[in-house]
């Protein structure tokens, strides 16, 4: 396994992480979840990501139960707070009350004294950002988390949190968890710049676009696949997307790697990226994903990929960078 620093922090994460969204405590049986996690650990993965909302706390329970057989300090465990856990009006969002109560519940489910990273699972427009920043600072100062981060926040929102932390002598976010893959590239504009400027790590979720970038949908929707039971995924499987993945799969075959490895290597080529969070329902998925860390894509391959994708985000005309020195 290879490791990268999480931004400018001293925390080292495996180049491939493993997450529990839609799997542990939900779609997967306990033993199947344990098998995937054990394979991940055997392959050197040290970063495990969960959230309180995943299977309404059951994902945290599964990970906590699994971790009882391992040395806690050998791993980087993250969880998140924001989404409603009950019908109670205060059991949601990023208020001080919800953050401080939720971290205790998360630790109980994980059977841990602390987590390494606590994420704000979305931006809360109904709570003053000062309140949120100060609450996360208290979580860290109380030893319940080592770092805090954001998830699906814009560059402006991250910058505002950073500035508020500086103003109040509080602790700023040090990592962002956005969606990022070959088909969803929004963060390449502003978030990448903010990450470089502030020294913030990026641990993207859905690096394989919910399985689309594994190539398993190239010839239709398998009965046992996620898309077979989730309408939102079927909507993503447009003829244009499938045609792109088929062409990308041809490149992967030329390189003698899997489509998953191509997609993950393409993400890992970015120095801003710390650790893509992968999902796995079988040990083979873990093994394939980990193989991406040894794949290097040269400029000619990257150019061919861009020709297929045709989706690189760009600034509108009047916002394009200007080299005034060359005028």
Provide a quick synopsis of the model:
With 327 residues, the chain is of the alpha/beta class.
What does this structure look like?
The chain is built from 11 helices and 10 strands. The chain is of the alpha/beta class. The protein has a single domain (3-210, 267-295), classed as TIM Barrel (Alpha-Beta Barrel), CATH 3.20.20.100. It has helices at residues 30-42, 58-67, 96-110, 129-141, 155-168, 190-198, 231-236, 239-254, 259-268, 283-290, 299-309, and strands at 3-5, 12-14, 17-19, 47-49, 76-81, 115-120, 145-150, 175-176, 201-202, 277-278. The strands form 3 sheets. Strands 7-6-5-4-3-10 form a 6-stranded parallel sheet. Strands 1-2 form a two-stranded antiparallel ribbon. α1 runs parallel beside α10 (283-290), α3 runs parallel beside α4 and α5 runs parallel beside α6.
Radius of gyration: 20 Å
Distance between the termini: 47 Å
**So how many helices?**
11
Shape: globular
Range of strand content:
5-15%
Number of strands: 10
Specify the helix fraction band.
Answer: 25-40%
**What's the CATH first level?**
Alpha Beta
Structural class: alpha/beta
Low-confidence stretches: none
């Amino acid at each position: 396994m290879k490791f990268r620093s999480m931004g400018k922090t001293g925390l080292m994460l495996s180049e491939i992480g493993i997450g529990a969204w839609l799997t542990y405590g939900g779609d997967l049986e306990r033993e199947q979840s344990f098998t995937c996690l054990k394979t991940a650990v055997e392959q050197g993965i040290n970063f495990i990501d969960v959230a309180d909302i995943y299977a309404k706390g059951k994902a945290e329970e599964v990970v906590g139960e699994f971790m009882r057989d391992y040395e806690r300090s050998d791993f980087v465990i993250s969880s998140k707070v924001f989404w409603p856990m009950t019908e109670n009006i205060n059991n949601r969002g990023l208020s001080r009350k919800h953050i401080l109560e939720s971290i205790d519940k998360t630790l109980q489910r994980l059977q841990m004294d602390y987590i390494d990273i606590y994420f704000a699972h979305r931006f809360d427009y109904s709570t003053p950002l000062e309140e949120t920043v100060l609450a996360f600072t208290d979580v860290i100062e109380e030893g319940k988390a080592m770092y805090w981060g954001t998830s699906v926040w814009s560059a402006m929102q991250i910058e505002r949190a950073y500035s508020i932390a500086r103003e109040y002598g509080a602790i700023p976010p040090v990592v962002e968890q956005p969606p990022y893959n070959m088909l969803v590239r929004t963060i390449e504009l502003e978030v990448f710049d903010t990450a470089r400027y502030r020294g913030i790590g990026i641990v993207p979720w859905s690096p394989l676009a919910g399985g689309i970038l594994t190539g398993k949908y190239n010839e239709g929707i398998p009965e046992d696949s996620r898309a077979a039971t989730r309408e939102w995924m079927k909507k993503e499987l447009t003829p244009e997307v499938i045609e792109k993945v088929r062409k990308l799969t041809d490149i992967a075959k030329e390189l003698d790697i899997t489509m998953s490895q191509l997609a993950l290597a393409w993400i890992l080529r970015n120095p801003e990226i710390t650790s893509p969070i992968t999902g796995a329902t079988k040990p083979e998925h873990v093994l394939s994903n980990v193989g991406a860390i040894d794949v290097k894509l040269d400029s000619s391959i990257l150019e061919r990929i861009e020709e297929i994708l045709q989706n690189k985000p760009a600034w509108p005309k009047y916002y394009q960078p200007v080299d005034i020195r060359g005028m």
